[in-house]
Here is the input.
Amino acid sequence: MNKETKLRIHNITAKAALKFGSEAWVLKKREKLRLEAAQMKLLRHLLGITKLDKEKNQSVKEKTGAQNIVKKIKQYQKKWLQHVQRMDTNRLPRQALK
Here is the structure.
């Protein structure tokens, strides 16, 4: 399987798995570090790079064109909040934010 196909599969499956349920998360430093570590582990595996190769995270991200998963989650949370704010006031998500 070529690199582009692997990246497309990663974007569809792995990112979705890492973002699952994140609209309700409060991201603390520990969670951010763990998410970034999980993303890097997936990207390294995708490229066939081990930690013994001593390749920096930034170069792995450049090779794959990956964005920081924490930034993506924060964008997702903002979109979700805007969506909830547009809901009718009798909807449960909107009531939960009061």
Remarks:
- The chain has a mean pLDDT of 90.
- The helical segments are 3-19, 29-47, 57-64, 69-86, 92-97.
- The radius of gyration is 17 Å.
- The chain is about 70% helix and 0% strand.
